[in-house]
Amino acid sequence: MLNFFKQWGAFMMAASRAHARWEKDVSDTVLGSRKRMLILGLMMLPVLIGGIAFADQLAGSLPGMIGGKKAYSPAFFTTGIFVASILIGLIAGLITGCIGAGGGFIIAPALMSAGIKGILAVGTDLFHIFAKAIMGSVIHRKLGNVSVPLALIFLIGAILGATVGGVINRVLYEINPILSDAFITTIYSIMLGFLGIYALLDFLKARKSGDAGDAHGGGKSEGAELNALPKKLQAMKIPPMINFDQEIIPGGRSISWVFLVLSGMLVGLAAAIMGVGGGFLTFPIFVYMLGVSSMTTVGTDIFQIVFTAGYAAISQYAIFGFIFYTLAMGMLLGSLVGIQIGAMVTKVVKGITIRGFYATAVLSGFINRIFALPGKLSALDVIDLSPATIVILDKIGVYAFFIVLGAFGVWVIGTFFTNIKTLKGEEAPS
């Protein structure tokens, strides 16, 4: 059991790093192109001139499916909301760029802590991911080794899973918005708790061994050797069989379409419920369970993020009004800048320090959600807590979360400005 925990945690970290590399590539592509910067400006224009407020005023006369007012909480433009969204995106970008691991896990908790309904936070995060993917034109030669048959069959399951996940969130919201928040909070608590504990143990182990480590933790090319589970699954010849890794392993390998569809359903379900790309699950499932090489996995993972996030954002949230466009655009702008700053800071900071910050950031997100959960359960009459206790627990979670993230942001930006001369020259020795 302990070995399984270690392996699963290692693969989740590898997936998070692969996703971070993709986000860095997207940031480079967008900020390095005048054409894409112009497109970004045009996307921002309706937000900056208050177009969202106008849309909100019309919402009452539109069918509920397109965006009834009850779905917007709030969806109007204010300078404060826009600035807050940029800061949230900036911190997420700093984590992604500096730590080399996906910082998107903080977005939904941050939005929910700011008073945004959970379902709106999820829909907004998905739209932000989709917009970033489209702007970065990620479906190009930089994707690396993508097995198209593998990706297409996987996407069948991902679309089914995303549909189910979207329906679950919307049904729970219709029953009781608090029930929806409690459900999303519980899922995030489990995910962040698992990843945070693993990251902390990994950091403590590295510090004890004196391994300063690469800022991004390196990463092995898992998947060349098959473990027992992938061997068993690949031995089950349920037609049609999907071939892959022909260019990496002599003769290639094959897996039944059934396992790909089931895997896709799990990833799509998680993506639609949590508002993430699903990469933290795709990597461990492909490598650890299905026996796909890490090279093929990275390319296929990025490929599925574009379509899974896009499908879930539009079909499960946008047409029902569960997307806060003001926030999405602000987060997009902030994250693109944050990734660049964070990536440059890695040149002047020891890797072990950055790994410690990652563990702290993940655990702060876990504390934020786990301390918010009792209040929601009390509101649902599942447990009995006094209002004063609920307020105290909620404040502990919120303050711990934003103090840690704020301190991290100040540290990274401060390090950047105090080392500008060094960054313009050669990298400082680790």
In a few lines, what is going on in this structure?
This protein has about 425 residues and is mainly alpha-helical.
What does this structure look like?
This protein has helices spanning 2-31, 34-48, 51-59, 64-67, 79-99, 107-113, 118-135, 148-175, 177-209, 228-235, 257-274, 279-290, 294-317, 325-345, 351-379, 387-418, 420-424; strands at 241-244, 253-256. The protein has 430 residues and is mainly α. The chain has one domain (2-424). A two-stranded antiparallel ribbon has the order 1-2. A hairpin with an 8-residue loop joins strand 1 (241-244) and strand 2 (253-256).
Give structural attributes.
430 residues, 73% helix, mainly alpha, globular, two-stranded antiparallel ribbon
Please outline the helices and strands.
Elements: H1 2-31, H2 34-48, H3 51-59, H4 64-67, H5 79-99, H6 107-113, H7 118-135, H8 148-175, H9 177-209, H10 228-235, E1 241-244, E2 253-256, H11 257-274, H12 279-290, H13 294-317, H14 325-345, H15 351-379, H16 387-418, H17 420-424
Antiparallel strand pairs: 1-2
What order do the SSEs take from the amino end to the carboxyl end, as H and E?
HHHHHHHHHHEEHHHHHHH
Mean pLDDT: 77
As a percent range, the share of strand residues is: under 5%
How many separate structural domains?
1
- Using only CA atoms, what is the Rg? 21 Å
The strand order across the widest sheet is 1-2
**Main sheet record:** 2 strands, antiparallel
Residue share in helix: over 70%
Query: How would you describe the shape?
Result: globular
> Low-confidence segments, ≥5 residues, pLDDT <50?
51-75, 215-224
Q: In whole angstroms, how far apart are the ends?
A: 36 Å
SSE class: mainly alpha
